[in-house]
Amino acid sequence: MTPLVSIIIPALNEEDTIGSCLEKVKAGCLKKNISYEIIVADSSTDATPEIAREHGARVIKPKKRGYGNAYLSAFSHAHGEIIVIGDADDTYDFSIIPELIQPIIRGKADLVIGSRLKGEILPNSMPWLHQYIGNPLLTRLLNFTFHSRFSDTHSGMRAISKEALGRLQLHTGGMEFASEMLIEAARKGLVVEEIPIIYYPRKSPSKLHSFADGWRHIRFILLLRPLRFLIVPGLVFIITGLLLMGVVSFSRTVELQGLHSFILGDIFMLGGLQFLFSGLVMKSYSVTHRLDDCGPWFSRILKYHSLEKILVIGFIFMAAGFLSGLYILVNYVTTTGPLMQITNAVLSLTSVIIGLQLIFTALHVSMMLLRCEREGCGFLG
């Protein structure tokens, strides 16, 4: 006996297409005698919910708007053993639901993705920027970062068993939900299969915002992997800057011959520190918002006494910078000849900047830990 299938469709002002989508759902399921229920997660201001109800769908109203919020609200209402998701703009053919769920029914997959890139994208279905640049680049970025082999990470047509869905920790409310589901699937070791599908032209204007939505996906990947994209590059910049400053300092008189190289090394070092501290803040955010695991090395950084030490070190750097600057000022007032203190001035300013970066990074992370203090995170000490 075929298990009950829950078809979840998020909708935002899709009155021109929602009826066609639901008719295709019925046609596909009736063709193979599939028991089904339709849930439309609707945030519309037009006649979309009324049309959906006329076609037999159960309509729910998410508390918040957003692609991910619609699905997160609807999942708790689904009774089926298999859940199918797809968009309400009639760009996906819901009549292929039987083919989409077959790998799950046969026990060959936990998650099935309808791949547009393995199938066919009809003319005028997708902007060239999305088809040839955005989707391929974001897909490769996700695959590279999480060691997966998806061909179309932004396809909106998928099927997943309810058991597998329960193993995924899904939180995001926007378009990045599409990436989060696949990232979680890769991290949890779900068996994923792809089938080719046809992607059809929209009958109404697209609600996607190319750069804003693309940035959401990139930002989410950065949040989960700051070590690879920020912390490691930051350390490389820091080491490069220190080496350049050291070579210039020991090989020549900085003020006379190597000033520009010395300042360039200083810029590399400060830029690297900014990368490093941004990575630490992003990692703190992902941990405190339950998007990622803490890990033993980072749990030590997040303990309050560690943050207090970082604050103290920051104040020491600031004090050293101010004292060095005061020394230069005294020399300037008391010296009648030329003042050769450019190197010391650069180091003084650098020390103050490093101190400020340390202090504000520690304060920022401490504020995020207030959330964990309320919810009782285990790594706080």
UniProtKB/TrEMBL annotation:
MF terms in GO: transferase activity
PANTHER family named among the record's database cross-references: RFBJ PROTEIN, UNDECAPRENYL-PHOSPHATE 4-DEOXY-4-FORMAMIDO-L-ARABINOSE TRANSFERASE-RELATED
Phylogenetic classification of the source organism: Archaea, Methanobacteriati, Methanobacteriota, Stenosarchaea group, Methanomicrobia
Domain Glycosyltransferase 2-like as annotated: residue spans: 6-166
TM segment ranges: 229-250, 262-282, 310-330, 342-365
Domain Low-salt glycan biosynthesis hexosyltransferase Agl6 C-terminal transmembrane region: 281-368
UniProt superkingdom: Archaea
Keywords on record: Membrane, Transmembrane, Transmembrane helix
Protein name: Glycosyltransferase family 2 protein
Entry keyword annotation includes Transmembrane: yes
Keyword tRNA processing: no
Organism: Methanospirillum hungatei
Stored InterPro entries: Agl6_TM_C (IPR058718), Glyco_trans_2-like (IPR001173), Glycosyltransferase_2 (IPR050256)
Signal peptide: none
